[in-house]
Amino acid sequence: MDEAGSSVPAVREAMPIRLPPELADPLLALAADVLDDLESVWIANTNRLRQLTRDVEDSDGEERGFGLTLDHPDVARLAALVEALDKAQQDATKNLTKRLKSHPLAPWLKAQKGVGDKQAARLLASIGDPYMRPEMRFEDGTVEPARPRRVSELWAYCGYHVMNFPAGQLTTDTHLVSASGGKTGHLDQSRSDTHASGVGVAPKRARGQRANWSSTAKMRAYLIAESTMKQLKRTCPADEERGYATHTDGCECSRYRKVYDAAREKYVDAIHHAECVRCGPKGKPAPVGSDLSRKHKQARALRIVSKELLKDLWREARRIHLGEEETT
To answer: Which residue blocks in 169-248 are alpha helix, DSSP H?
Structure first.
């Protein structure tokens, strides 16, 4: 009871609650899905139109096109449909990039050289929140609540984890191993994906097998990595033979281009520690101890760039969640 003898409890002063930022934007994901759908339909019908009007021989000497022209009424109708789909695709792209502008991560993404709005929005749509792992529901009915995830878990979700094999083991069965390095699991398992010994191998998809990482997120990160590689200033000479550029102090090249060149230099004399299907002829993988091909070195470097980009995105998302001041 209070001094006046009343049994009514005292009113407690309301404390403001800091709500977590919404980094997983469902409307951004929806806009990205719409663009994906329109692109797929546009590509399919563009190929049909090309086949209808094609009048040249293939490399084997066979002529498989129909050789029709736009004067044909059916061809003209298809051409008009393709044009309309192209316009719809452009409108969907504008809608997606407009939605990105209101995202908390948009200012950071805008500041990264070589990271375009369209691909950045698609990457975010495929990831959701780079820092927070969403609630997970499993077939046995158990539920794991949403929680912060480590950067290694984000890499695993995007297919940039590493799986371990005994030295010399063939890597054709990589689809059997999960993103965490074990035989089972889900996209964001918390256990380590590497072991103390053996050969680290990047995972790959296999026909008829369901990958336990997001192939879309992996593709989007890789495409952005390829784009940032083009951000090279004339002041930094590129060695075409060795495959990387030498950067001058204080150059204005993209940070991720510098990461790429450092990786190319690192792998300039790299050899295979496991048999490699990528570098060998069909049915005969490149043996252990052989040199990596130029394309394999480039793929390794782009993989490193992709992981660096995801790590920086994770750091910025964490900064926003924790309410920290932006560093310069």
So the answer is: 215-229
Q: Judge if pTM exceeds 0.90.
A: no
Report the run of H or E that residue 101 belongs to, with start and end.
helix 73-101
* Predicted local confidence at residue 173, as pLDDT: 37
Helices in 149-196 by DSSP H: which ranges?
A: 151-157
Mean residue pLDDT of the chain comes to 83
> What is the helix (H) or strand (E) element at residue 273, kind and residue range?
none
Cα angle 203-204-207, degrees, rounded to a multiple of 5: 145
Cα angle value 281/284/287 (rounded, 5°)? 105
pLDDT at 193 over 90: no
pLDDT tens per residue, range 130-147: 999 988 888 888 999 999
Q: How far apart are CA 313 and CA 156, in angstroms?
A: 15
Secondary structure class of 25 (helix, strand, coil)? coil
Neighbours of 50 (CB within 10 A): 11
Say if residue 287's pLDDT is above 80. Answer: yes
Half-sphere exposure of 177 (CA within 13 A, CB side): 22
Phi and psi dihedrals of 192, rounded to 5? Answer: -65, 150
Cα–Cα distance between 110 and 7 in angstroms, integer?
A: 59
In the predicted model, what is the mean pLDDT of residues 199-225? 78
**Residues 171, 198: Cα–Cα separation, whole Å:** 12
